[in-house]
Target: 2-hydroxyacid dehydrogenase
Amino acid sequence: MPKPMAPKVVEALGGDAGLVKLWESADPDAELARVAPEVGALAVGGHVKVDGAFMARFPKLEIVSSFGVGYDSIDAAWAGERGLLVTNTPGVLDDEVADTAMGLVLATVRQFPAAERHLRAGRWLDGAFPLSHTLRGRTLGILGLGRIGKAIAHRAEAFGLAIAYHGRRPQDGVPFRYHATALELAENCDILVVITPGGAETHHLVDAAVLKALGPSGILINVARGSVVDEAALIAALQSKTILGAGLDVFAEEPKVPQALLDLDHVVLLPHVGSASHHTRDAMGQLVVDNIRSWRAGAPPLTPVVETPWRGAYKGSAGPR
Model:
């Protein structure tokens, strides 16, 4: 484990013996060089960059068990080409992130944080908070209709919102209108929720053109990765009122948030807390542990990512360890 993870993850893996807590070493580089020849598994969070050069330091590496659904900090394609497995933690955080997305939709459209600041500052004594915008008659566009996207759609339908989506291709059995591009989706919705994976393929997918298409009554919600949105273009669109507002849980260079965003009153900002409840983070951590325990038993991984499918054996040996 290169850097600290949740205490329950550290405790569970430490109890299995053989856990190297690299961050506790007085000389991490020297400790890494010492243990690398024998390491078969890595337990990592999204704050650890696991590229090909890093994985190549471990000749016996067979699995990278990652905390989180997104795994753009891991070169999964490199791993897959070499018979390594990468696992993530899908499913267990879908509802929490979907709740956060809808919370941002409500908070942004109805301006609830600004209304609370109005009250706390004592300004209610001087006059009512201005009337807000509404969800009535709006269409919610979902950029990335995976498990979390579908959970968002389910919640949004309960609020009476029409739903549209964009992804790599139309999905069978989905009752929502499909749009072939992010630009086309933005042209046909009032609230654009970004919940697509990060990485090179989706870098700046939401650019100045998409924001312009969203329009002056449009709201952008990002609960995916900061890299998916061109942050400079978003700031310009907000400052010029090209769009109405934004609700953001993720940023381009976390935990750094541009002062220009902090200065805007029609933006709701959260410190990447989409899945940050005790219940959900414990479930995510347990899945990290269970994937490594499956590897130790020589059993199939529970949640391999698409780039590293299970082929019936681990790289070095199919037997128990």
In short: Residues 98 and 151 are 6 Å apart (CA to CA). The chain has a mean pLDDT of 95.
